[in-house]
Amino acid sequence: MKLNDLTFYDYFRSSASYRVRIALNLKGLQPETVTTIDLRTGEQAARPYKAVEPSGLVPSFQFGGKTFGQSLALIEWLDAKYPTPRLIPQDALAALAVREIAHTIACDIHPLNNLRILKYITGTLGASEDEKLDWYHHWIKTGFDTLEALIAPHRDEGPFCLGKQATLADVCLVPQVYNARRFDVDLAAYPAICAVDAHCQSLPAFGAAAPE
Ligand SMILES: N[C@@H](CCC(=O)N[C@@H](CS)C(=O)NCC(=O)O)C(=O)O
Where is the GST C-terminal domain (predicted)? Predict the structure, then answer.
């Protein structure tokens, strides 16, 4: 289904945008316009984009004369408006478990390793490339230790993080695993995370959303 009059500001290697692409694909939704904001050239922090999206980050949706950012808020909005399939369960306890995993990624891992943070620690704080990588790996491993403990007990319930259906947890997990691999993080200690990632990657909705 086409989302008329909606522009999706996207960047292929942005893992927050990757979450939104997976959610759109799972729901069979196509924004009328997809506009690439090139993070390599700093387009996100300059006009005209920054004039409509003050965070200077992607992803965002523009419709009805307004622009809205924050990938999890965008996905929650999609889920409320187009609930098939549901990415956040209706049952309050099940929803809590899904959000616990999603927020572990979106609040406790991703913001520490974002492009502007890495630029700040190497530029303003003068960290070396090795120190930057050390920082990156440290926060992935800290977060992945938590995620493995959250996901492993559910391995017998289905191929996704929390059972037989893809949820917001999987939508967040796969892009974060992509980031970890891109920065050569050793994932041997995370068999449950890798099993869920492998299953999701085999599905067209996840595959078509992948950066490369
Ligand atoms: N919490 C935000 C994070 C958005 C974010 O950090 N986006 C990154 C790409 S994944 C970005 O635009 N980075 C540009 C920069 O750091 O300058 C969300 O989930 O949407």
Answer: 91-212
- In our burial notation (b when 16+ CB lie closer than 10 A, e otherwise), range 160-180 reads bbbbeebbbbbbbbbbbbbbb
Residue 10's pLDDT band (cuts 50, 70, 90)? very high
d(CA 43, CA 36): 9
Ligand 1 atom with least separation from CA of 60: 20
Q: List the CATH number of the domain containing 195.
A: 1.20.1050.10
Measured CA to CA, the distance from residue 22 to residue 3 in angstroms comes to 15
Question: 44: Cβ below 6 Å to ligand 1?
Answer: yes
C-alpha 181/C-alpha 171 separation (Å) is: 17
pLDDT tens figures, 68-114: 999 999 999 999 999 999 999 999 999 999 999 999 999 999 999 99
Mean pLDDT for all residues in the chain: 97
Boundary residue ending a domain (27, 47, 81): 81
Report CA(134)–ligand 1 centroid distance (Å). 21
Question: From the alpha carbon of 57, which atom of ligand 1 is closest?
Answer: 12
